Give the backbone structure.
Amino acid sequence: MTGPEIAYPNNTMGLTCYRDRNYCSNMFVHATGTNHIARMDPPNEYDIVKWDDEEIIAEDQSTCQKITIRIACKARQVAWVEEPIHQTEPRCVNSTTAMAKYTIENSPGWKRIYGEDKSAQGRRW
């Protein structure tokens, strides 16, 4: 995952969408120091709200932020957007009010080794 102000820029993410189950699942792993990898948490699940030949859109609105994942199938691009919601609820009073936008792509190291044209290698569309 890449984008401005990302806490741990040295990271990797697995994202899998299941049409028959109507959800996408992801897991993160990130380096929190020079020789330290953070623990792996259980997968997160996002409800699929749209799936066609052009795109897959999955969302989660269960916390104080709405997460939207948009997979542009033909372009082979993934956008991840977090925006504040439920801001008037007591549980969300101290939550972030900023919107964040990220992309999911191969790391600069992967691109350096394998090249830009193979950056989508390993993905099944």
In short: Helices lie at 108-114.
